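Researcher: Here's a chain I'd like modeled. Treat it as a single chain, no partners, no ligands.
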Amino acid sequence: MRAPQDLILDEIFVDLQPALGRSLSLKCEGFNFFGSVKAKAAVAMISAAEESGRLKPGSTIIESSSGSLGIAVSAIAADRGYRFVCVTDVRCNERNIRLMRSLGAEVVLISEPDENGGFLGSRIRYVEAACAADPELVWLNQYANENNWRAHYRTTAPSIVRNFPDLEYLFVGAGTTGTLLGCARYLKEIGHPARVVAVDTVGSVTFGGPPGRRLIPGLGSSRPPAFSDQNGVDEVMMVEEADTIRMCLYLARRGFLFGGSTGTVLHAAWKRLLDERPDARAVAVSPDFGERYLDTIYDEDWVRLHFGDIGRFDPLRELAAPMAEYVQG
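Model: Modeled as a single isolated chain. Structure tokens:
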């Protein structure tokens, strides 16, 4: 490799059957150089902007991000000589902010919520105002940029099918919905029978639910996504953030430190697969690892402050409980 964006590891899967009691493989995108699945979308969007002539030597990129995409764009901008302004909000953890600034990015923090209580609408309004004031700014707009989902259509989905041709279920979290729709459209186009399950956070309006408090960045949105065509998505599951944290903490006790989005997707997958035979072939996409969540999900004081005593989650014990009741009966 000659540049940070050259390191994309697309064939790493972890078998979580011993931990969850169901045949579930996790596609780990956290091994990419930028530490998340957003590396693919960032490379695709910036490369397309260069090919179209929108990005030129010395250009300034502006983008709204809750963290992971901003980190990926920061690294590519540093490598290719662009200035980068990341518009994020007060929910973005301090580690992500420091990482972006270390890579040379300017970070703008939005503190005023939008009409649904989130920050996405406020962040986008800031970007739109900045672009109106300076037409030379190049807004990648991950929320409406077709190269976002195309990156996963070309890479993520084919990798999953290559490794699991007998796939029955694919669980993908919904943020900008780029990963979700790229995978769903690929499977539909090749005629693969696997069911695509979209996973979202309670409080997100992406799939028409009511807005509500969301403290864990990554999945969910306070405004409907621009990618309105959900063609290829067979099912939607919503997960409470407390369940996200329980899953993350349980897996950490098994030696796996995953991010919040991964915990959300895995909780939905585990719950959905309870209704299937134990060997049903399923894959879930893990956007990132847990190091960036040490001050939130993995901090006891933070969890207690925002969620109280959430208790412990043990999927293997819960699986065994119904059988024990049956035997006793």
